[in-house]
Write a structure and sequence with these properties.
This protein is 39% helix and 14% strand. The chain is an alpha/beta fold. Helix 12 links the parallel strand 4 and strand 5.
């Protein structure tokens, strides 16, 4: 079914730009889902003999079902699929759905289909394919959500490098959720994209027999179209979230200034430049006495924004480019203070090719406002944490992952479980949770010890701390490295000599040569 839908989407080629596919398809999938749920609730109302309330919005809202006027229902659109004004009918339906359902304010496109110029036959063909989705057949396993997620990932892959920033691969989100365990409390994402962090957080709660009512979701997104994707994505899953009044820049217009979150999950833009003017935000309270993050790179602006939002026991898991691990200057000063304040808990270097928008290796940071020895209740169970205030756990996952979509890789469920269990065993007291350093995988490092983080200039590069195993004891790697360096020097010297000889010949022949 998913592949058939993808092929139907490909039929739009030639009608609109590929970057618009996701908005066309995902809005229609949302309408089909909303209509199926409405019809189901409509029949329930009739079955209990309350026909007079069939058009009462409150009778749908009470069951987390969106109310749809007759002209907004999927059956109406199907009946009129051959009409030349089909794009206008879809637009009017989306506008009316948003008007009738307050929770969808700002989520649906306005006058979108009528301005794209899609051929009506192609649009009708797409409706036919989407009509095949039975959104009610597998509600417990989130069928429509799976289809939606499938399309988000497909579009992110298809749009390639520099695009698809709105989607974080599911395996990365799963890893963060399994590590920080957002069972209950407030979850926050300052750059929420299409809402994937929230979706996987709630799946984690469901999968561990938690209660969704114990979780509150807050987020913010800057790009208007991505903000709408997030609202629809969450609506399809029945997730209530406060994403602010509309799309907005988290730094210049923080829509949750007083928020204190128990869990933060995020994938901020990597190495964002010119994120503020030199004179802007210099005394922002989110910097909390740390140095003001430089305008040249927003990485530490995102970090401090998240630290400022954490509750007294809050935990954050987020992705950053590797450069933040060893950046110097102002960023280095901020990193040093974060480490000395005992906020940095774990640093995990991830494999390459996990992301659809970049092939670089990136880092997962875990920050914790309370690394001290304590007893806490987690999902109803008493949990004893050991004192790790002056230690940091480093992990190297670069040898993990399985092939995915030909040119990408993804972490397997077993690998995610191994990483999460190692982290939790490191945190917890007791023999049954024994932690041990593993060469080329994990190392617990004391900040103040000889060879520790302080001695290494407060660098957070995992390879500086994780033990390397010499797999071939017969090889003197230091001597061999020097030999290779000499060989490389000779090759470069010979190349330079050859190049100069060619230049001399050309000059002798009267040619003017410029390099």
């Amino acid at each position: 079914m998913e592949q058939a839908l993808w092929e139907a989407c490909n039929k739009l080629r030639g009608s609109i730009e590929p970057s618009e596919y996701k908005h066309v398809v995902l809005s229609l999938i949302f309408m089909k889902y909303a209509s199926d749920r409405f019809e189901q609730r409509y029949d329930e109302i009739i079955e209990v003999g309350q026909e007079m309330f069939c058009e009462n919005v409150a009778f749908y809202a009470s069951k987390n079902v969106f109310f749809l006027a007759p002209e907004c229902r999927w059956s109406f659109l199907k009946e009129n699929a051959k009409q030349p004004n089909l794009p206008q009918l879809i637009d009017m339906a989306l506008i009316q759905i948003e008007k009738d359902n307050a929770s969808l304010k700002g989520a649906l496109p306005y006058n979108y289909y009528s301005t794209l110029g899609i051929d009506t036959p192609k649009l009708a063909s797409l409706l036919d394919e989407i009509d095949r989705i039975d959104t009610l057949s597998d509600m417990g396993n989130d069928l429509i959500g799976r289809v939606y997620e499938f399309f988000l990932s497909k579009f992110a892959i298809a749009e390639g490098k520099g695009k698809g920033e709105f989607y974080t691969p599911k395996c990365i989100v799963n890893l963060i959720a399994e590590m920080i365990q957002p069972y209950e409390g407030i979850i926050y994402d300052p750059c929420c994209g299409s809402g994937g962090m929230f979706v996987q957080s709630l799946k984690f709660v469901d999968g561990h027999h938690g209660n969704r009512k114990n979780v509150s979701v807050y987020g913010q997104e800057y790009i208007n179209t991505t903000y709408k994707l997030a609202k629809m994505n969450l609506a399809i899953r029945g997730i209530s979230a406060n994403l602010g009044e509309g799309p907005a820049n988290t730094f210049s217009r923080d829509q949750h200034p007083q928020l204190k979150a128990d869990f933060i999950m995020a994938n901020p833009p990597f190495n964002q430049k010119s994120w503020r003017e030199e004179s802007e935000l210099t005394d922002d309270p989110r910097w909390m006495g740390y140095d003001v993050p430089p305008t040249s790179n927003a990485n530490y602006g995102w970090i401090l924004n998240m630290v400022s939002k954490l509750s007294v026991n809050g935990v954050a898991g987020f992705i950053l480019a590797n450069g933040a691990l060893s950046a110097e200057g102002t960023e280095g000063a901020i990193r040093r203070k974060l480490i000395e304040n005992g906020v940095v808990e774990a640093i995990l270097i991830l494999p390459r090719n996990l992301f659809y928008s970049t092939d670089i290796s990136v880092t997962l940071w875990i920050l914790n406002k309370n690394k001290k020895a304590r007893i806490a209740t987690v999902n109803g169970h008493e949990t004893h944490y050991r004192d790790r205030e002056r230690e940091i756990l480093f992990m190297d996952l670069r040898q993990m992952g399985e092939p995915f979509e030909k040119k990408y890789i993804r972490l397997t469920d077993e690998e995610i479980a191994r990483v999460a269990n190692t982290y939790h065993n490191w945190q917890l007291e007791g023999y049954e949770h024994a932690y041990a350093d593993v060469p080329e995988f994990c190392q617990s490092v004391e900040i103040d010890a000889n060879g520790g983080v302080k001695d290494k200039g407060y660098s957070l590069v995992p390879s500086k701390y994780i033990e390397f195993v010499n797999h071939d004891e017969s090889v003197d790697y230091e001597t061999r490295m020097k030999e290779l360096q000499f060989q490389l020097t000779d090759i470069l010297r010979e190349e330079a000599t050859s190049r100069q000889a060619v230049l001399n010949v050309l000059k002798d022949l009267g040619y003017e040569v410029k390099l």
